[in-house]
């Protein structure tokens, strides 16, 4: 790898890495961090997945490498600010302290080079399931895996019993519709919070849906995640914000070209 291919930006925002889970994509993230340096890095929650680690220790070397890479950036002078999420809520007890130079804060207001004020938060407090039934969310992780497993067995059993076909896809379409409602309710609540704070921009994570769009005059930015979307947000030296998708090592060759920009959220 050529070191000159590293882009220097003013600020990086990364969230929902979920270290400690099999879904995490540490290699793509390491590649991304190798190609991006920043004065300030915001870790916008769910960086380490405490829920999954509690259920069973999973911590391969590559996950360690991500932590080491971030700590190396601190040593090289980057300011790293960690806004805990719900999967790393144990860190909320440490708000105001710092670990290896990483500052832990509840939420932050970032001011860009252009003077734009951005409220930075993870977003789980606007997730009604997490807020009112956290046990359901934890159960949901398991239930989802179980539902996929069950559907395969249910359809086979029904076939064997001569029962009509039960459509998993029809059932999941209903799920998708509910998911869309969930996303818009979440975005509405986040935007309302920005309005309460008197800022015109808000940046969050949590729902794993990268976005950069205007909602009721508020710029709504979601960093996405490093499980599926592999996205991050960068602030350039002129204050311009960019949503970067880093989904294949092909980007190693493409770093000198401007990265693809996402139009809207999925
Ligand atoms: Mn979360």
From TrEMBL:
<feature type="domain" description="Calcineurin-like phosphoesterase">
    <location>
        <begin position="10"/>
        <end position="210"/>
    </location>
</feature>
<dbReference type="InterPro" id="IPR004843">
    <property type="entry name" value="Calcineurin-like_PHP"/>
</dbReference>
<keyword id="KW-0997">Cell inner membrane</keyword>
<keyword id="KW-0472">Membrane</keyword>
<keyword id="KW-1003">Cell membrane</keyword>
<keyword id="KW-0479">Metal-binding</keyword>
<keyword id="KW-0464">Manganese</keyword>
<dbReference type="Pfam" id="PF00149">
    <property type="entry name" value="Metallophos"/>
</dbReference>
<protein>
    <submittedName>
        <fullName>UDP-2,3-diacylglucosamine diphosphatase</fullName>
    </submittedName>
</protein>
<dbReference type="InterPro" id="IPR043461">
    <property type="entry name" value="LpxH-like"/>
</dbReference>
<dbReference type="InterPro" id="IPR029052">
    <property type="entry name" value="Metallo-depent_PP-like"/>
</dbReference>
């Amino acid at each position: 790898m050529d070191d000159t291919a590293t882009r220097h930006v003013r600020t990086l925002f990364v969230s929902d890495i979920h270290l400690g889970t099999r879904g995490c994509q540490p290699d793509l993230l390491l590649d991304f961090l190798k190609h991006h340096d920043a004065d300030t890095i915001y870790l916008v929650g769910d960086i380490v997945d405490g829920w999954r680690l509690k259920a069973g220790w999973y911590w391969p070397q590559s996950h360690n490498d991500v932590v080491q890479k971030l700590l190396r950036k601190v040593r090289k002078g980057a300011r790293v600010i960690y806004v805990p999420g719900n999967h790393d809520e144990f860190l909320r007890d440490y708000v105001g302290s710092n670990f290896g130079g990483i500052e832990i804060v509840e939420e932050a207001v970032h001011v860009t080079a252009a003077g734009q004020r951005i409220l930075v938060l993870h977003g789980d407090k606007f997730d009604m399931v997490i807020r009112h039934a956290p046990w359901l969310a934890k159960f949901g992780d398991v239930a989802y895996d179980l539902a996929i497993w069950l559907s395969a067995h249910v359809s086979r059993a029904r076939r064997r019993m001569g029962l009509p076909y039960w459509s998993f896809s029809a059932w999941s379409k209903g799920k998708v519709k509910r998911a869309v409602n969930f996303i818009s309710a979440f975005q509405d609540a986040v935007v309302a919070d920005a309005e309460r704070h008197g800022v015109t921009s808000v940046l969050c994570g949590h729902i794993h849906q990268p976005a950069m769009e205007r909602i009721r005059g508020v710029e709504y930015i979601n960093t996405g995640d490093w499980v599926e979307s592999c996205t991050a947000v960068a602030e350039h030296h002129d204050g311009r914000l960019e949503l970067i998708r880093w989904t294949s090592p092909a980007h190693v060759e493409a770093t000198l070209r401007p990265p693809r920009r996402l139009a809207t959220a999925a």
